[in-house]
Amino acid sequence: MQLEIWIDFLAEKEFNCFYFDNVLNLTFNSFERFYSFLDHPLPITLDQDSIFLSTKEQQSLMHALNKINRNITKLVAMIKKERVLVRNISPYASSALRDDAISFDVELWHLHSDALMQVLNAPWNSSTLFKDRFNTIEDLGKEELLEAYHKIIKIADAIRPFSPTPAEIALYAFDVARNRKYIKSTSSNNAIGRDLAKVLAREEIVCTGYANFFASICFFLGVSCDMQVWESKSQTSPGHASSLAYINDNKYDIHSIFSFDITANCKKNDDDSFFDNCSHAFCPLQFDLLRKEQKYDLIMAGFYMNIKQTYAS
Question: What pTM was computed for the model?
């Protein structure tokens, strides 16, 4: 049986599991419980959520789990040898992590900034790779990701002493990001110019890079932000990426979600003075759709923000 292993670390469940489509999803409440399972593997039983399955589905699931349990030592060996995907993790769970031979692929999408740094600073081994919302093309090692975050935190710390409001934070992030000159990459590596770590380490930056740069500054200053992905209506033209930010600001009485298209107002060359305008900041969503509808279709927005607004024109 070809088996893919996913692991979640959720405080409310000491141990649980679910199996579907050759994916075994194991849930532990901490790394201590995870290591205990590896040292003393016990038969895997049905997840309590399986009571909602039909009798036929439960029988099929039990058949699969019985096959896994007959080879439980092989399962443990697989976990120790293969790369294991960690989909959910908390700072509490990572506090008991050992720097051992097990290599993980860790997803960090769901964490807020403080929890993110706590998890990342746990003693992961050098072969562990991380997936985050600002580097979606290329997985990164701990040190490379920390280096990128520390650069963003330094940018955020420059304004933090002034206790900026959400609207001021968004405008600050917009100004910092658009001050970078638009430079396309000639490399075959699509992460260059797009993923945050590459944007901060190199001179290339394009629309996705601007969106990630802007969003990361907002993220570390506590403003909810996300990316809009646009598909070109012309097969000969590339797509586009811009940003969303939820501005809940009592000082300026602003309480809405706005579009920020940094690329449209970015510096195009060293002598460009036009980028000083803010025509694509704090743009109402419907107006942004109308402005782009001749050229693009919106295909994704608000993935991390749980936006419930309708994006139909």
Answer: 0.86
Specify the pLDDT at position 40.
86
Q: How many Å apart are CA 223 and CA 313, to the nearest integer?
A: 26
Q: What is the dihedral of CA 158, 159, 161, 166, to 10 degrees?
A: -150
3-class SS of residue 9: strand
Give the pair of three-digit tokens for residue 99: 């720097």
Tokens encoding 115? 């929890």
- 3-state secondary structure labels for all residues of 242-266: EEEEEEEECCCCEEEEEEECHHHHC
- For the segment 230-278, what is each residue's pLDDT rounded down to a tens digit? 888 887 778 899 999 999 999 999 999 999 999 999 988 777 766 667 8
The average pLDDT across 116-125 equals: 93
**How far apart are the C-alpha atoms of 144 and 109, rounded to whole Å?**
17
Nearest to 178 by CA among 263, 280, 274, 242: 263
**Do 180 and 210 contact (CB within 8 A), yes or no?**
yes
CA distances from 222 to 71, 72, 97, 252, 284 (A): 47, 44, 28, 17, 21
Bridge partners for 259 per DSSP = 244, 283
The torsion defined by the Cα of 241, 282, 289 and 245, in degrees rounded to 10, comes to: 50
Q: Is the pLDDT of residue 71 over 90?
A: no
CA pair distance 34, 36, nearest whole angstrom: 5
Beta strands in the chain (DSSP E): 4-9, 15-20, 23-28, 84-88, 104-107, 129-132, 135-141, 225-232, 240-249, 254-260, 283-284, 296-301
What is the dihedral angle through the alpha carbons of 101, 105, 111, 113, rounded to the nearest 10 degrees? Answer: 70
pLDDT band, residue 298 (cuts 50/70/90) = confident
Total residue count of the chain as it appears in this document: 313
Q: How far is CA 119 from CA 9, 82, 88, 122, 181, in A?
A: 12, 21, 11, 5, 33
What are the distances in angstroms from CA 255 to CA 166, 186, 252, 280, 282?
10, 41, 9, 18, 11
